[in-house]
Amino acid sequence: MRKIISFMHISLDGFVAGPNGEMGWIKVDEEIFDYVGKRISEGDTALYGRVTYQMMESYWPAAGTKPGASRHDIEHSKWYNNVHKVVLSKTLNETGLTNTTIISDNLADKLNEIKNRPGNDIALFGSPTATHSLLQLGLIDGFWLFVNPIVLGQGIPLFTDIKDKIKLKLVPVTRQFGCGVTELNYVVDRQ
């Protein structure tokens, strides 16, 4: 069975964005871009909430073809255009969307159906609201966190309204990047 892995930048105090969704505090550089690019290159399905999907859709489809596009933009744009996108949204519909499935109801059933199809793990990018919903349904199987060296003090937390304890196991693939970001990988311990 495929797993849903949440990919998220996080502050040291557990926030994924500022109080108004600000993300300017997130540190990214070529080292992180290269690492993430290699890690997701084999992925065939990306999962987004509506807000993150619309942000991605407004940039990535054409990013690789713009004059002066970086190597990262070219590679990620190609990946984005080829990967199957699954979007959790009650307001979007699939009309006119390429290689995209919209899920607006019965999240658990529909995502479990996708998890049971052949393929690689499903990458949930950003999307704090979607992450919160999937956590409450017990559908997230792991976390790939990029801990940024900053304390925000307030904002949108990664973990909120958790009703039951979620036990995690640290996967020994931890890396520190030159910009000070530390990557931590956890799998959900369902035992």
What key attributes describe this structure?
191 residues; Dihydrofolate Reductase, subunit A
Question: How would you characterize this protein structure?
Answer:
By secondary structure, the chain is an alpha/beta fold. It has a single domain (4-116, 128-158, 170-177), classed as Dihydrofolate Reductase, subunit A (3-Layer(aba) Sandwich), CATH 3.40.430.10. The chain is 28% helix and 28% strand. The chain has helices spanning 30-40, 50-57, 60-63, 71-82, 107-115, 128-136; strands at residues 4-11, 15-17, 45-49, 84-88, 100-103, 122-125, 142-148, 156-157, 168-176, 182-188. The strands form 2 sheets. Strands 5-4-3-6-1-7-10-9 form an 8-stranded mixed sheet, with helices on both faces. Strands 2-8 form a two-stranded antiparallel ribbon. It is globular. The model has no long low-confidence stretch (mean pLDDT 92).
